[in-house]
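Q&A log
Question type: sequence-to-structure
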Amino acid sequence: MVAYGAEQRVRVAAVRARWLRQTFVHWPFRPQAVQALLPPELAVDVYERAAWVGLTPFVMADVRPVGLPAKVPALPSFAQTNLRTYARRADGRDGIWFLSIDVAGPVMPAARAVGAPCHLGSLRVAGAGDSGSYAGRRVGGRGSYRLSVRPGEPLRPTERDVWLTSRRRAYTRRPGRIRETPVEHEPWPPADGAVDGLDQTLTRAAGLPAPLGEPVVHFSPGVTHVRPGASRPASA
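Response status: OK
Response body:
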């Protein structure tokens, strides 16, 4: 069994939160097609000779900046959907590179401040019985998606499962340099997932061609002890 533990610890968290009902839909692409969307400081990470792009909708819950008094309530829950790929710096440190972040909540100014490509939208997450659904449309209609998924049995994660889901670092670029945001949380409780319906234009809006194959799907009920650290220059 492949280890599924945290890669790093965040000494001083900037925010605490829970990430719930997360689905991972990953497609394989030619590495050159994804590399064209990355800054020159980062090289696309590959697995089985393919670059992978993931559509990851979830619910952001109990978001609370660290340092506030306990009596101050957490922010209301809201939906977020990331389109992401994986990259490495010249020193080999790997992380997530966001192609887009669609959000229906209050974190957009903070995310944009570190260079994350955020889009305000109308997003929805729903669950009933053994199925779940996600939908979103950006303000201005420049991207949309609809996804229905059936969670399967819990997984004994393979090497590929870990590679696709267990990154603990995000890269952004602003102003003119790469920044790094560390994230700590407990291991994902992963399960298989089956797509009942998927219609999306986010990959095309990001500048990607058609993928090389069918998606690989995972589902997780979520993690409840998420601790992102402060963004910092990647060379620090």
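Response note: The domain at 15-229 is CATH 2.40.400.10 (Acetoacetate decarboxylase-like).
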